[in-house]
Amino acid sequence: MSEKIITLSRHIIEEQRKHPEATGKFTDLMNDIAFAAKLISYHTNKAGLLGVLGETFNVNIQGEVVKKLDVFANETMIKALDHNGHTCVMVSEESEDVIPIPENYPLGRYAVLFDPLDGSSNIDANVSVGTIFYIYLRVTPEGRPGRAEDCLQPGIKQVCAGYIVYGSSTMLVYTTGNGVHGFTLDPSYGEFVLSHPDIKTPKKGKIYSVNESNFDYWEQGIKNYIHYVKQVDEKTDRPMNSRYIGSMVSDFHRNLLYGGVFLYPASSRSPEGKLRLTYEANPMAFIIEQAGGRASDGYRRIMEILPEHIHQRTPLFIGSEKDVAMIEDFISGRLS
Predict the structure, then answer these.
(1) What DSSP letter does each residue of 158-169 carry, written as one string?
(2) How many helices (H) and strands (E) does the chain have?
(3) CA-based radius of gyration for the chain
(4) Cα(158)–Cα(303) distance, rounded to whole angstroms?
(5) Cα 296–Cα 184–Cα 3 angle in degrees, nearest 5
(6) DSSP string for 185-249
């Protein structure tokens, strides 16, 4: 007998059977996201042949130059989610305001937030990029168009978070609060197949991931931590290894599997931090906590922060529990 193949759809259905109140709508929504991921994966892998490399010469709400593949990924996510009656409103990194469901389309009970193509500045260099998504149950009355308040909930209210990394293989990782599971896209029959069940990240890692060119702009506690992890000390297994891709999904995915910490501190140039709380920090925080790790802004748990606007920024320290706790100690001055 060959080993049982568990597809993403089958896995979600089996999980929903544990909840008698489940309607199947969430399964359909996840299938829509998986379909969008397959399209984006195809275009990412053939970007140089399909003419979607390069810039559009437009600038998004974040002040970043928009790549052609950014546009494709954003449109693909929106079109996959706006018509099947599962979604009431969406938020994208590429859109200034919330994205309503078109008139005369059915409305659902879920608000979906996403970064359609994280790390897109690396696209033309053939570096791994990814898609981040997470899902809330709406708080506004059902049957009406969703509003911003459906999306401005703390991370602890998430019902699902996940990401897709487009690398040497395409992998979808998600959690609904019952562990973290990874699915690899099998190109031979176009299905996401369970390859990494119940992912657990090490309590202490060997990798730190940060853009050290910003060193002089950081507060002293962060500088002290970086000095510390570079020192040679066999008793504490130092120095740590520096690994930084510049694509958050890729850096996070590696550290999730191997152990380590990803840092994007506030700086004198970006005093509120650079990463977005809603569709970058919160979903990754949900995933890492479910895998046994930790996510912090240096002072508090990321998932307990109440967002004030959809593109709110935050510092982020995320990864193995002991590594993040140590960073908090350096920031507070308990360690120096």
Answers:
(1) -SEEEEEEESSS
(2) 9, 17
(3) 20
(4) 9
(5) 120
(6) EETTTTEEEEEE-S----SS-SEEE--GGGGGGS-HHHHHHHHHHHS-BGGGTBSPEE---S-HH
pLDDT, one tens digit for every residue, the chain (336 residues): 346 899 999 999 888 877 666 678 999 999 999 999 999 998 888 755 445 445 544 555 555 545 688 889 999 999 999 999 999 999 999 999 999 999 999 999 999 999 999 987 777 777 889 999 999 999 999 999 999 999 999 999 999 999 999 988 999 999 999 999 999 999 988 999 999 999 999 999 999 999 999 999 999 999 999 999 999 999 999 999 999 999 999 999 999 999 999 999 999 999 999 999 999 999 999 999 999 999 999 999 999 999 999 999 999 999 999 999 999 999 999 998
CB of 278 within 8 A of CB of 312? yes
Domains of the chain: 8-196 (3.30.540.10), 207-332 (3.40.190.80)
Instruction: Quote the CA–CA distance of 102 and 97 in Å, as a whole number.
Output: 15
The residues near 16 (Cβ < 8 Å, ≥ 6 apart) are 22, 24, 26, 27
- Helix %, strand %, coil % of the chain (to 5): 35, 25, 40
> Hey, what amino acid is at 290?
Q
Q: Could you give the count of Cα atoms lying within 13 Å of 114 in the half-sphere of its Cβ? A: 30
* Residue 278 structure tokens: 């809603």
The answer to whether residues 88 and 146 touch, using CB atoms and an 8 Å cutoff, is yes
- Is-contact 301 312, C-beta < 8 A? no
What tokens appear for 141 in the block?
């009355």
Q: Which of 66, 63, 37 is nearest to 52 (CA)?
A: 66
